[in-house]
Amino acid sequence: MVTEGRWDNKGQYAKERIKLYEQIFGEGYISAGGHRTTEQMCLPLQNLKNGARVLDIGSGIGGLAFFLESQFGCNITGVDLCENIFNTAKERAETNRSNVNFLIGDILDMEFPLKSFDVIMSRDTLLHLSETKKRELFKRCIEWLDDNGEIVIGDYCQRPRDEAICKSFKEYIIDREYDLHEPVAYGILLKDTGFKQVKAMDVSSDFLEMLETELDQFRKIHNPRPKHIERRDYDSIEKSWIEKIEWVHSGDMRKGIIYGRKV
Ligand SMILES: C[S@@+](CC[C@H](N)C(=O)[O-])C[C@H]1O[C@@H](n2cnc3c(N)ncnc32)[C@H](O)[C@@H]1O
Q1: Does 158 map to a domain?
Q2: Which residues, in sequence order, are bridge partners of residue 157?
């Protein structure tokens, strides 16, 4: 059960973990690919311009939001469920004199007026929502988007569900309580809920390259292991990257960027 304010997905988003992730992914990011993934996600969007109203679902510690604000002059609302993460984002907004409006809460409990946004983005977050909740959210996103609105989602994916996946990846999905789809099936989900001009891109080969770079980077920075990082944390981060590389290599784990328009 989600206890608002204290949810950290069994330590996945604990304070110390966030610091470690950021060292690997780059400043402002707690998801694979850091800034490179942001650029990939911005590519299909036509509405990113000065004054565009953007909703970032699962805004984390603000990497994407701060970039959109400084690069395009967008007005960003970021929503995140985890208190540690929200507090960090807020502190950074103050330090950077940023106008990003960070809100804490479950995106499914949020109320926004109809047609409040020109763009909705979400990065490595909807994996936390069940398929039913994803459908519910997409329907609400259509209402929140203005007529010309666009959505782009970057998310972990998997091979088609009717194909077997290896035991360790299966256990990882169960342990994290993720809901993953094959990229094309993810696109169909978006289309089913009413989005138009849907494009589902499988960017697994780029993802693999990013994971390999991140693992190298992690080993470089942390060799020898700094005293403030527990051996246990070091090993678990390293193991989790090695595993992800194996899963992506075998095609079990995939990465998708899914794009759609309101009309
Ligand atoms: C892997 S992190 C990615 C964060 C950020 N998008 C990034 O790329 O750095 C997933 C984020 O989703 C947030 N999250 C998970 N479920 C959520 C929900 N139902 N509503 C809002 N945020 C949620 C988590 O707290 C976490 O910050």
Answers
A1: yes
A2: 254
- Residues at CB less than 6 angstroms from ligand 1: 13, 29-31, 58, 60, 63, 79-82, 85, 106-107, 123-125, 128
| Residue 9 maps to a domain | no
85 occurs within a structural domain:
yes
Q: Structural domain of residue 97, as residue ranges?
A: 15-261
CA of 194 to the centre of ligand 1 (A): 24
| Residue 134: CATH number of its domain | 3.40.50.150
Tell me which of 15, 38, 80 to substitute to probe ligand 1's pocket, judged by most ligand atoms within 8 Å of the beta carbon. 80
Is the pTM of the predicted complex or chain greater than 0.85? yes
Number of structural domains found in the chain: 1
pLDDT in tens, 89-142: 999 999 999 999 999 999 999 999 999 999 999 999 999 999 999 999 999 999
User: Distance between CA atoms of 167 and 112, rounded to whole angstroms?
Assistant: 41
**Region at 104 (left for phi over 0; alpha for psi -120 to 50; beta for the rest):** beta
